[in-house]
Amino acid sequence: MKHIEVGAMRVARENGFLTVKAALTNTSAKNKSIYYRFAWLGDDGFPVAPEESWKSLTLYGTQTSYLPAIAPVPQATDFRLEVQTPENSVNLFR
Amino acid sequence: MSIRILALLTAAAMLTGCASTASPVLGGGNISYGDTKAIELVTNEFGSTDLQSIAESMARSLAQSGVLQARPVIQVYDVKNKTSEYIDTREITTSIKTQLMKSGTARFASDNTDMQSQVDQLKLQNQSGLYKDATVSQMGNMVAAKYRLEGSISSIVKRSSDYKDVFYKFSLQLVDVETGLAEWMDEKEIRKTTER
Amino acid sequence: MTRLSCSAVALLGLLLSGCETFRSYETELTAVNQHIQAGDVDAALVLLEKNNSGDDKDLLYYLEKGELLRTKGDLDASQAAWAVADRTVTQWEDTIKADPEKYLAEFGSLLVNDKVRRYEGYDYEKVMLTTQMALNHLARGHFEQARTDIKKTHEREAFISELRDREYLKREEEAEAKGITAQYTDLQGYPVQTLEAPEVLSLKNSYQSAFSHYLAGFIYEALGEKGLAAPGYRKAIELHPNEPLLEQALVQLDAPAPGSGQSDVLIVLQAGLAPARDSVRIPLPIPTTTGLIITPLSFPVIKSELGSGLQGGVLLDGEALPLVQLNNTDAMSRRALRDDMPGIILRTSVRAISRSVLQKQLNDNVSPLAGLAVGVFSAVTEGADERTWRTLPDQTLVARLRLPHGEHLITLPNGQQAQVKVDQAFQVVALRMIGSQAFAASPAVQITPSTPTSLAQAL
Description:
The structure holds 3 protein chains of 3 kinds. By secondary structure, chain A is mainly beta. Chain A has no helices and 6 strands. Chain A is globular and about 40 Å long. By secondary structure, chain C is an alpha+beta fold. Chain C is elongated and about 85 Å long. Chains in contact: A-B, B-C. At the A-B interface, loops of A face α2 and α3 of B.
């Protein structure tokens, strides 16, 4: 991902549910749109809830935004953040 | 010359090594199954992504708020549609109910659409004389709701020659039936813009 | 040489005599309408079949047939005919959704005569088709099936609105590029006042009907879906502002449902016939290589069906029933023409220019007779597109009230009386009046012939 940096993440358990706040920074000077979603994992590392819907976010130039998330079920103990940007590219020959 | 033959032979070898397994698809053409969780940007109106994002954020916010102690019984009322768009608000409440049930934090009483089937079934069991007494559900044992969940959705549409901007605001509140107090409220805002 | 070209012209004439371009839809349907106005629906159906004896029947045939069968009271056959029409319209929608650019390019095809183009239906006709289908279902109390049809109506409307936005934009760009900017107001001899009437200009557009949305609201309310009923009433209010009936509906949505023994009844009275489209020849200066030539071109003009509308008041159980007009097909048809006029002028002018160029070339290179043949051919076949759904009702008037269960009597302006049986919690009573003829489009309504005493009472 160009110009999108995933920063610090804070995890807590509030009222029995896992809550996450993840920092996402736009390092370029132009607005960037990204799509993200969280995947919630149990003790064994496998998902405990079905896939979430993708959410869209626009980051202004050099803005840092905090993505809040709450787990859908109390059994979630871990999470994974998936981020997609329209400018994704994969180097085939790496 | 020999290099050309070599190149041709390697190409032939590579191709004969490829075999495809037949695809289990009938028909085909230009129809395919899409991703149900993808972001839908087909038109500016209320869409599937809006429905999913509202249900998700409202259900999780309510589950995590700590108001629902010991799996209380909730009665869900219709979400009032204050927009001029044909939005099936019952689908939003059904999604919220499903996600709350799966989180294990609440139980739901029959709402006004299910009530008639519920009453019919009870009457059928008790009054028709068709069922074995030991298996019949007794009348007068339905559990009353402790909370009431209701909400509304409204929209503001602005248009200019270059832009069409639609702003939705969905608000939901949990009211205690006995005291009449609102114990929890949350809202979700969505903005969709079309640039011509 | 001359004998060859003479015979060529004659052959051409023979071949085309069976062709679409020679059909005058206006005269065909005027004859059909005369049968209906005399009260003889069966004769009208027979005439319609005679006019469409080919195998490949177009959309218009099914639209007219469905409405005639509905008037006769044969709701099943009416739905069957309209189902075919609906499939055609759905196909039209699907082809556009698959490739919108292709449709816009084809639609703007400037060289094909409008008459020869396959009939797609005007936008308001597409919307009214599914609305009428919903009324058929409601006549028998099938609210669930009516819901499917009315949902199709407002979804189709949304699709049409998006399509037209794009089309008008494209057409404006094309007109500027071609340099043809004549307005219909410039056409000498065109009855401009028919398109500039206040009821035409006050419409938001040519296809959105307050009645469709009000009916949608009523159907959703009857099914208990208040979340979908509210926007239906709101849209109806938006399209028809300052109407207490519509505002009352929105307020009543929150009130309790009718108690046992009471019914929420919607009386729908559809009167009159949709207007006809006729051709009028207007001379227009066409720029050619030899300078400006005045050529007579044909343009469509709307002719209202006067005398077929509602002629008097309606009584319910002896008391005057206040009816509100929610739909005026005449105004929608004119508005559709008014919005289409720039495109029609553009296409007609371009065709005339290309034709004069062709004629000149034939005159110079082949023979004067060939040029004459083209001229004669075009003079005979050139005419505006007269095709439109003529049997569609013109005015739709509604009244909504709470009635106790049982038999009620509606007295119509022509003296006839309709016996209505009210027994459901929500009910729609549909009546059709054409001139002085009344038709019951539902099994719950019985129309008794007029008697002199009831006529006196009505007055």
